[in-house]
Write a structure and sequence with these properties.
heterodimer; A: mainly alpha; 10 helices; B: alpha/beta; Alpha-Beta Plaits; 2 domains; four-stranded antiparallel sheet; elongated; transmembrane (chain A); ABC2_TM (chain A)
């Protein structure tokens, strides 16, 4: 079974290698544009952003959010969009479903493949953050948190991708952006620490259903000093809890799609 | 038959779909049988018994919606049976699907080639999924490309293949891991006549090498030409099971008179039935035609035509030796093309 699992993974990496330029554009564009606009253009044109009375630069606040966002996006792009296509039109997935391993393992392989892409995408953020911003980014890396949180967040994102990919019918791919990607990203504590939402109490509690909030907060703890962040216990609990929930939903959806 | 010779076994296999799925035909539950399932849904497979022996080409012949694909779906672990039992290579398909998958090769009706990979990588990675080492997977991929006449397309994207080539590649992929049984679900549907013949040759070649094949088809020529044994299936049930020759012999020495009619075929059929006194003559009205299964067709032909003309103008008459289609029509009163 392990051999088959690794072979499926090798296939996904082979495909990634052969479409490497596309993959690079996919993982670089978003952090590049975000960092460029918010931390280069805005300061240069004198646009005030990042809240009042902030002691750290906005660039520093933003960077953790961009790492979290990059990971989530790979989950959606790497798994969800592929699955929607494979289930809906191409039926290619049948070939892998007939590989000699249990169905849950076929689904798990998709999640792991997306997680690996997510980690690459997260790593790409650092060189972008080092060169692009007009105001300096002050990183203070907490390695134990970073090396444990990043894989967990990446797996959680893969599980999210699996859940979306198996539940959204192919005719409604556009819905993924409208009802999932946009709320997830705009209300994912990317541009501000979660604590800063305090003046809007209802929103502060509402966004707690968004797994990206915990990832952003977690990476804030892992990468920056002096920026407020949520207690790490909640971060880990939420990332693992959301991951497990989304995996359960995704697996249910996957089985429903491949078995009748 | 000793169990060792048996590669596929289905016992009282039944599948009821809760909600009618796309492209699936069926009939109301329990229709005509007191012990039928009483739940809501469509009965696609109905208490089906089946044995496929090692090394044979076995065919499931029936019209679209007869339950052929659902049966294959159950045997290849992608459809869960409602009741009954199925064993492939001695392994229960519901209890140990992952082990069953190791023993089967599947060519489904849709093109499931991996579009992100080249022709040869489709084979190579398939081999890797089935636990072959790098060198062995590459060796078998190369050998199969040669044998299936795809070697010159080895590095082409699969989307550039013609329908016939794509189908050959699907078959090559399905046999690469040397499965105990190869499932071909309507292998030549949608292929041009030349590609169909080429595929038949490939299947015969695999058979000559000892490959067990279970195929479904609604083309009677395909069943007749390719299969050693056949099950005629309709409404999820097996109506007859034997060699093609033996099935045709069930019609005795009767041949089929087929009348095309501009008029009421039903009425013509009952008129013809009235004049054919002979005990074993059978008459069926079907799609505006009248089919008579009679002995000594030559001598009764004028009477049949004359009688049918009373219900409308006879536009065409043919007399044929019995075919598998005649057998199917006699068993079901319907046509394979429905």
């Amino acid at each position: 079974m392990t051999r088959t699992f690794l072979a499926l993974l090798a296939r996904d990496l082979r495909v990634l290698r052969s479409t490497f330029p596309v993959f690079v554009i996919r993982v670089v564009m978003q952090p590049l544009l975000l960092v460029f606009v918010f931390t280069y253009v805005f300061p240069k044109i004198g646009q005030a952003i990042g809240g009042s009375g902030s002691t750290t630069s906005f660039s520093t606040v933003l960077i953790a959010g961009v790492v979290a966002l990059s990971i989530i996006f790979q989950g959606i792009q790497g798994v969800a969009l592929n699955l929607v296509q494979e289930f809906g039109y191409t039926k290619e997935i049948e070939d892998r479903v007939l590989a000699p391993l249990p169905i849950w393992a076929v689904a798990a392989e998709k999640v792991v493949a997306a997680a690996l892409q997510g980690l690459v995408a997260a790593a790409v953020v650092f060189p972008v953050a080092a060169f692009v911003p007009a105001t300096p980014v002050h990183l203070s890396v907490d390695w134990p948190v970073l090396v444990t949180l990043a894989p967990l967040a990446a797996l959680c994102a893969g599980a999210l991708g699996l859940a979306i990919g198996t539940l959204i019918p192919p005719q409604q791919v556009a819905l993924i952006f409208a009802i999932i990607v946009l709320p997830l990203t705009f209300l994912g504590a990317i541009y501000y620490p979660w604590q800063a939402l305090h003046p809007i109490a209802w929103l502060q509690y509402l966004v707690l259903v968004n797994p990206l909030v915990y990832m952003s907060e977690g990476f804030r703890a892992a990468l920056t000093a002096g920026v407020p962040h949520m207690a790490l216990l909640w971060v880990y609990l939420a990332v693992v809890g959301f991951g497990a929930l989304l995996w359960a939903i995704g697996l249910w959806g996957f089985r429903r799609r491949v078995l009748s | 038959m000793t169990p060792a010779e048996e590669v596929v076994r289905a016992e009282q296999l039944t599948k009821v779909f809760r909600t009618p799925g796309p492209r699936r035909a069926g009939r109301p539950p329990g229709a005509g049988r007191p012990d039928g399932p009483s739940s809501d849904g469509l009965v696609a497979v109905d208490h089906l018994d089946l044995q496929v022996r090692r090394g044979e080409i076995f065919g499931l012949l029936g019209p679209n919606g007869a339950g052929k694909s659902t049966t294959i779906g159950i045997l290849t672990t992608r459809v869960l049976p409602t009741s009954g039992r199925a064993l492939v290579a001695g392994v229960d398909v519901v209890r140990s699907p992952a082990r069953v998958k190791r023993h089967i090769g599947v060519v489904s009706q849709t093109n499931t080639l991996d579009r992100s990979l080249s022709v040869s990588d489709n084979l190579y990675y398939h081999g890797r999924y089935f636990g072959l080492g790098r060198r062995e997977a590459a060796r078998r991929a190369e050998e199969l490309l040669e044998r299936f006449r795809l070697a010159d397309r080895a590095n082409a994207p699969v989307l550039s293949l013609s329908g016939g080539m794509a189908q050959r590649l699907m078959v090559a992929r399905a046999v690469l891991h040397e499965p105990e049984v190869l499932f071909l679900d309507e292998p030549t549907a949608g292929l041009d006549p030349q590609s169909r013949l080429a595929l038949w040759d490939l299947v015969r070649d695999l058979h000559a090498r000892g490959q067990t094949v279970l195929l479904t088809t609604h083309y009677m020529e395909e069943a007749d030409q390719l299969c050693e044994r056949l099950a005629i299936i309709d409404h999820g049930r097996i109506l007859a099971q034997d060699t093609p020759a033996a099935l045709k012999r069930t019609l005795g020495d009767r041949s089929e008179i087929r009348l095309a009619l501009a008029g009421d075929a039903q009425q013509a059929a009952s008129l013809v039935k009235g004049v054919l006194a002979s005990g074993d003559a059978e008459v069926v009205a079907l799609d505006g035609t009248v089919r008579c299964f009679v002995r000594d067709a030559g001598s009764v032909l004028p009477t049949v035509v004359a009688e049918a003309s009373r219900a409308g103008t006879v536009t065409n008459v043919t007399v044929e030796e019995p075919t598998l289609e005649s057998v199917f029509i006699r068993l079901t009163g319907r046509d394979l093309r429905e």
